Amino acid sequence: MKEFALKLEKLAEQLLDLLCENLGLEKGYLKKVFHGSEGPTFGTKVSNYPPCPKPNLIKGLRPHTDAGGIILLFQDDKVSGLQLLKDGQWVDVPPMRYSIVVNLGDQLEVITNGKYKSIEHRVIAQTDGNRMSIASFYNPGNDAIIYPAPELVERSEENGQEYPKFVFDDYMKLYAGLNFKSSVIVVH
């Protein structure tokens, strides 16, 4: 499992560099911001959603955004359930074999000054089988200072800086205090 996690961590870092390229930021910028004094954090969570004969009576995994950085999700290739909110409507993310769903969390929304969004999503209960997923989270270090990239703020003449500067651990405490349900919970 450790080797698997190391490869996923490397993949997350490669994706961060691709985001830098797309944003016109220096290669490694996002990794540097995530580093803090102790380096980024990386963790993996395995989830099991058993079949439910009356899915309309339970919530599954409540709507939320991911508080961290970049999330790599291996979802069940047979049983659906993941949905994202798009234009006020819940949209199914169909299970696809041999694929990884990449989700950007709240910290990337802040660093990109809103250019990339942290998407609200949920998992709904299903009647047709066990749904398994493996989610790996590449997050800033606890003492990392998160704020919009100055270069992106300069390019956004009309909006300026959309988000304040904060310490990642402080954000996580606020997020937990709000019962993990809020989207980018910083005061504009």
From TrEMBL:
Signal peptide region: none
This protein's UniProt keywords: Iron, Metal-binding
Pfam families for this protein: 2OG-FeII_Oxy
Domain Fe2OG dioxygenase: 40-140
Protein name: Fe2OG dioxygenase domain-containing protein
InterPro entries: IPNS-like_FE2OG_OXY, IPNS-like_sf, Oxoglu/Fe-dep_dioxygenase_dom, Plant_2OG-oxidoreductases
Record GO terms (molecular function): metal ion binding
PANTHER family: OXOGLUTARATE/IRON-DEPENDENT DIOXYGENASE (PTHR47991)
Lineage start: Eukaryota, Viridiplantae, Streptophyta, Embryophyta, Tracheophyta
